[in-house]
Amino acid sequence: MNVSIAEAIREGAQTLSNGGVPDARREAGSLLQHVIDRDRTFIITHAEDLITPEEQQCFRECIARRAEGEPLQYITGRQQFFGLDFEVTRDVLIPRPETELLVETALALIHKGPAPSICDVGTGSGCIAVTLLNENQRATAIGIDLSIEAIQVARRNAERHSVAARVSFLVADCLSALGSERAMFDLVVSNPPYVAASAVDGLQREVRDHEPRLALIAGVDGLNIIRRLLRDSGAFVKAGGHLLMEIGFDQGEAVQRLIDRTSWTFLDIHKDLQGIPRIVALQKTGS
Q: Is CATH 3.40.50.2300 the right assignment for the domain spanning 89-284?
């Protein structure tokens, strides 16, 4: 028997609620939007419209996946970031609102440059590099990630947002693939893995069980990749250029102790909307 949009959402929301999913009705509505390829306004204004048996079956399958803890974004394959629609798969970290602060901080630093060059380390979905290029039409970028699958997603997102001609992607371990090149970039930017191995069990199940460990965990204290960025990126940043990194909520003091003050001038740790220290900003010394 065919059911209406409203009935499907009620049924889905109940299943999600039973599965411990917060905002169950909203998430059920988002999943139905995905299945029938309609926006939220249509869902609201056509609540009594019937969905097809095929749509109902697909919707129930999506609801079951979400009730088991799979993130909504991996089910729909999409996530909004800085006003842009990005493809996401289980090979990449889901872009988060906190990382928009990283982009805002970067844009403020490069807006005066004639043709700023950017290196995005741990590019994942490419959301940082692609957004920066979308916002600054003069900029060029290199995106680096250890995962070839992530790089493939990033390339598709670059094509999707018409910046592919200004970005190249490398499969590499941090900055290792840049070899003998020096002082290439006005900005190195990164949302690196920064979760301590001991903290994994305490993560939300959506993150712990579904997002790629490679993009999350960075050694015993969560600072392994941050240490490498602080150590290695100076060779590739022009004098007066910048290094920006997203960090964990409790890592600010530890990161400040790791900074080589002969190579970097500490500018700030920008706080996110919740007042949590989130973005480390450094400037390369020299002239």
A: no
